[in-house]
Design brief:
Length: 279
C-alpha cells in the first residue's frame, strides 16, 4: 500500500560537507535514515562543485522512491543585503531590479550571474535579498530531474530556514540572530519585526566570547542606528545545546534549539542541524 504522504529528504549543502536526513510521517515525524558526507571545497573551479558532486552520488539510490526534498544552502554560498523601500517602485519586478542593482554596486560585475530572491514583507518594509550563483542553483536542480519520484520542492538559504523555524522567538523583541557554521558566521538583526542589518563573515567562532566580540564589531559597522542599542542575541550553534539565557560580555545570549525528534539527538547529530532547520 502506498504512503499517504511522501517521505521528506532534508539536505544541507556546505563547502566541506553534505548532510541528508530522511524523515517519515507528518503528524509524528521521525528520522528513518541519515548520512553526513565530507567533501572537498577545492574540487572544481567553484567552492560548491565538490558538494554538488557528492549530493548527486548520494541521491542515486533514492531516485525511484517518492520523496520530497528540501535543500538548505550554507551561508558560505549566499550573499545578503537589506533592500530599503522606495516610493517610486511600482511592483515586484522593480523591487527585484533594485535588489540586483544593490548587489552589483557592492560586488561588481560578478553579481550579473547571481540568482537573486527577495523575502516577503509588508508594504513599505525593508526586505532581505539573497543572491546565489545561478550555476549552483542549476546544478542542484539537475540532481532532481523533472518528472522523477524524487522531487526538489524547496531550495533555501540557511538564514531564511532558521528565521522561519524560529520566527516566533525572534518576533518578541529587537534582537540579533547569530548562526554559527564551521569557518562562517551569519548575523542578522530585526528591529520592530523588520530586517535592520545582515552580514556574513569568515572565521571560526567556537565560543560565546568569540560571538560577543563579533557582535560588538558588527553592531558598530551596521548601517542602522538601532543596532547600537540592542544587546540581545538568539544563537544557533549546533555544538552548543544550552537553551537558557546567559550574559556574556554585556550580551544576553539565548540558544535556539531544535525540537525533539525520534532518530535525532542534538548533541550527537550536530552535523545534521542545518538540514533540520528546514520546516
Amino acid at each position: 500500500m502506498s504512503r499517504l504522504w511522501p517521505d521528506r529528504l532534508l539536505v544541507s549543502l556546505a563547502p566541506s560537507a553534505v548532510a541528508l536526513l530522511r524523515v517519515a510521517g507528518r503528524l509524528h515525524p521521525r528520522v528513518v535514515a541519515k548520512q553526513a558526507i565530507d567533501c572537498d571545497p577545492a574540487f572544481g573551479a567553484e567552492p560548491w562543485q565538490g558538494a554538488v558532486t557528492v549530493l548527486a552520488a548520494a541521491l542515486e539510490s533514492l531516485r525511484s522512491e517518492r520523496i520530497d526534498a528540501t535543500v538548505v544552502l550554507s551561508n558560505h554560498f549566499v550573499r545578503f543585503a537589506i533592500v530599503k523601500p522606495e516610493a517610486a517602485l511600482t511592483g515586484a519586478a522593480e523591487e527585484l531590479g533594485l535588489a540586483r542593482f544593490q548587489f552589483a554596486r557592492i560586488y561588481g560585475e560578478r553579481a550579473r550571474n547571481w540568482d537573486v530572491r527577495l523575502s516577503a514583507a509588508r508594504r513599505g518594509a525593508p526586505r532581505l535579498a539573497s543572491a546565489v550563483d545561478a550555476p549552483l542553483v542549476a546544478a542542484i536542480g539537475a540532481c532532481f530531474p523533472r518528472g522523477g519520484s524524487l522531487r526538489l520542492v524547496s531550495l533555501q538559504p540557511y538564514l531564511m530556514a532558521a528565521f522561519n523555524r524560529w520566527r516566533g522567538a525572534l518576533s518578541s523583541d529587537d534582537a540579533w540572530l547569530l548562526l554559527i557554521e564551521p569557518q562562517r558566521a551569519c548575523l542578522a538583526m530585526l528591529a520592530s519585526q523588520e530586517w535592520a542589518a545582515v552580514q556574513t563573515v569568515r572565521g571560526e567562532y567556537s565560543a560565546p566570547e568569540d560571538w560577543a566580540a563579533l557582535l560588538d564589531r558588527e553592531r558598530l559597522r551596521a548601517d542602522a542606528e538601532v543596532t547600537t542599542a540592542v544587546r540581545s542575541v538568539h544563537v544557533h550553534a549546533p555544538a552548543d545545546t544550552r537553551a537558557h539565557a546567559r550574559e556574556v560580555q554585556g550580551w544576553t545570549m539565548r540558544g535556539l534549539g531544535l525540537p525533539p525528534l525520534d532518530g535525532f539527538e542534538p548533541r550527537a547529530d550536530a552535523r545534521f542541524a542545518m538540514a533540520l532547520t528546514a520546516q
